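Late entry, evening session. Most of the bench is empty. Finally got around to the prediction I had been postponing all week. Sequence below, unchanged from the version circulated by S.P.
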Amino acid sequence: MKVRTREQLVDLLDEELGWRKKELTFIKSNVKSNSANYKTFLRSGILLLYAHWEGFIKNSCEYYLSFVKYQKLNYNELKENFIALGLKNNLIEFEQTNKSTIHCKVVEFLLNKLDQRANIPNENIIKTGSNLNSTILREILTSIGIDYSDFELKSNLIDAVLLKNRNSIAHGQYVVLDDIEFTSLHTDVLWMMDDIKTKLTNAAILEEFKTKNTCAQ
């Protein structure tokens, strides 16, 4: 997907979150304690809640990466995290090889060739591992230059409530959450998705992907 403008990015993020919210709202309405099948709806609701959480993070972050890629900036105009993404394969090779020629090549690039057009990968870069815990979320957001600190207080909710219950259900275990707890979890997950969308939108509008020196020009 080629995301070339801020407007296109905003539209994609709105669409990505909109259809997920609509489906999750429908699921929430079925999780009623007075329903004979409410436990079934609750279990399926947790599975869908996690699926939308993971899917939204992956897709929205890749849209943002695509947007940054198609701004066609040089490496030295971008923040360090995007330089790292652009040189990811080189850095992996640097770490895994004992060849001095490879080491020197990477160092030479970092010293002398950062004025080249950045080649930022944007497909299959956001890896959730079907296990999007708080540690993986931190790494994903850091890799695209988004501050994780607002999610620090949500780490336990992500790991010990959302992910733990999703994994238990996926492995056929019983889940002890009730409809009140599910509603609270539903609210928190939607808040996090909304917040990610806002952060990505603001980062694009304010050009937070650029170095401070570039922004000041």
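Two things to note before I forget:
Residues 38-69 form the longest helix (32 residues).
Residues 145 and 153 are 19 Å apart (CA to CA).
Will write this up properly tomorrow.
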